């Protein structure tokens, strides 16, 4: 079993920054493929960024150039640095993990990730 715990969410004004963290335990962290998803009220969950075991990263078009996904294997922690935040970034952000390869971005779904954290709320005001 893999246990994921997110932190770092909060309320910021448009243009501000936040760094989300996802601490993992219960598995060999280096063998996990990791991702961040987000879901706003009344909307479908959407993928934000992925980080494969080989270090390859992928991003949603809406966050490219503003968000950066990274991982610290020594701390078993995944990060999402969010800069130039916009009100449309407001959502519950969740960390997810899988033991199988990420694959292509377009085919990747949340259902393919077995392990999920509880989520951390990000609110961006104008």
Indicate the topology.
Layout: E1 3-7, E2 10-13, E3 18-25, E4 33-39, E5 46-51, E6 57-59, E7 67-72, E8 77-82, E9 91-98, E10 115-116, E11 120-125
Parallel strand pairs: 2-11
Antiparallel strand pairs: 1-3, 3-8, 4-5, 4-9, 5-6, 7-8, 9-10, 9-11
Walkthrough of the structure:
With 126 residues, this protein is mainly β. It is 0% helix and 48% strand. The chain has no helices and eleven strands. Strands 2, 4, 5, 6, 9, 10 and 11 form a seven-stranded mixed β-sheet that branches. A four-stranded antiparallel β-sheet has the order 1-3-8-7, with no helix packed on it. Strand 7 and strand 8 form a beta hairpin. It is globular, with a radius of gyration of 13 Å. The mean pLDDT is 93.
């Amino acid at each position: 079993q893999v246990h994921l715990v997110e932190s770092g969410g909060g309320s910021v004004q448009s243009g501000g920054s936040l760094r989300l963290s996802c601490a993992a335990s219960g598995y060999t962290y280096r063998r996990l493929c990791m991702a961040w998803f987000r879901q706003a009220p009344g909307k479908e969950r959407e993928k934000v960024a992925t980080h494969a075991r080989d270090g390859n990263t992928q991003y949603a078009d809406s966050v490219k150039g503003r968000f950066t996904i990274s991982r610290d294997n020594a701390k078993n922690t995944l990060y999402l640095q969010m800069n130039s935040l916009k009100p449309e970034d407001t959502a519950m952000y969740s960390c997810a993990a899988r033991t199988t390869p990420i694959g292509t971005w377009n085919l990747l779904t949340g259902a393919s990730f077995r392990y999920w954290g509880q989520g951390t709320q990000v609110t961006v005001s104008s």
